[in-house]
Amino acid sequence: MGSKYMKRYTEEFKRDAIAPVDSSGKTVTAVARELGISSESLRGWYRKAKADQGESHSGELTGAEREELRRLRKENREQQQTIEILKKGDRLRREGERPVSELYRFIHAEKANYPIVLLCRVLHVARSSYDA
Length: 132
What we know:
Strand content: under 5%
Order of helices and strands: HHHHHHH
Number of strands: 0
């Protein structure tokens, strides 16, 4: 059974830990045993380092690709939410002079579903003017 505490290692430690795997010809398990760390942790660090160097054959993403994917997923989620907000708030946008109180009621009703910052941006309401 694993411990409740997960030990965190610095990037420098990880870099130093994987170096002997290539230079000494030792297996990942042997190097991990010498360092007193989990062989699965060392194996993961090793795979990630190889992927970042472009030496991965398993199709793993590099660090830059992972970061871009994370950014694009966030952007996509925000765009989907924007579309949903626009559909729900369509009635408010079509009226010529939209009462601010209706906008605030809509924001209040939807704040559990969407970030207030996004609601305000989509509905063109200053975030500072909305007092939750």
